[in-house]
Predict the structure of DAGKc domain-containing protein.
Amino acid sequence: MTVIEIICHEEAGLGRGREVLDQVQSYLDDRQQGYRVHTTAYPGHIFDLVPELLDNFQKESRLLVIGGDGTLHELVAVLQAKQVDIPLTYLPAGSGNDFSRYFQQDKSSLSDYLAPLVEERSPKTLPIYHYQLGQHGRRRSLVNSLGLGFDSVVIEQAIKLKESKGIFRKTWGNKLRYLVGLFQSLPRLSLFNCQLKIDGRPYHFDRCALVVFMNNPYFGGGIHLYPLEKIKDRQVSVIVIHDIKAQGILDLLYRIFISHQQESSPYMTHLSGKVVEVEINRPMISQVDGESLMIDQYPVRVWQGQQDFYL
Ligand SMILES: Nc1ncnc2c1ncn2[C@@H]1O[C@H](COP(=O)(O)OP(=O)(O)OP(=O)(O)O)[C@@H](O)[C@H]1O
């Protein structure tokens, strides 16, 4: 008999994880479906918990994860690092849920998320990205985006706002936190030059604010940064925000938040290829799936990978 191993970050989405877990348990109890619950007790707990789980994983075992993008990122990172081919079921419970916003946009009810697992439908393969820092770094994985530059400063500021009191603590306040965080971070905007290599072909950009590898057109919790057409097989998309001056910032904000005409912006370039590399001549504050990372080894090389999901 199938046993579902549930990994849950109860505090995700300011407690939404616990609510979703309760709903999932009653759904599975009603169907007399066996399961075990493993809650994460500290940041990065998944890196200890999942290897233990995998040691006892049976042919009939299934993995279900409840949490925000950060929790999904960590689980996919462990499975990919161990090169185990186990399909996942994902129930979004964060405040941003960018992965779900794009890849699970046809789902709304609990049954939409759980039926493919419970009814043992065939898993579907979704694109993820692998990345490597420096020539000798190990292969790592991500599900949404890897951004070098301003985006990470804004995300750090938005996280501080989430930890503060009042309106910023609301789960629906994600876009507001990001926007306020963005304006508060403008004085810390630091521009850089970068070299890109797309399948071996070189590109150079000056006065850049951000280089972001995007497996998903959304970032920062629902912000539609760039209208990527359907994600192409084995291709990596990179967006560069460049040649920034004061009026460029206003133009970009207007296009991203109001007119949605990013494609004709003189300050934004979208490139894609099978292997994309970026080189910047100084350490950069960065974000991977919404979590901060300091990058000081180059090139950063990105290529597409795959992860199976019950969808
Ligand atoms: N019990 C815990 N206490 C503190 N942090 C935890 C705990 N369990 C997991 N984490 C960490 O919290 C981070 C964020 O988790 P997650 O993305 O699931 O929630 P969230 O930040 O509320 O959601 P969102 O990113 O959508 O706002 C992860 O890096 C994870 O390691």
Observations:
- Residues 207 and 243 are 5 Å apart (CA to CA).
- The first strand starts at residue 3 and ends at 8.
- The mean pLDDT is 92.
- DSSP finds eight helices and 18 strands in the chain.
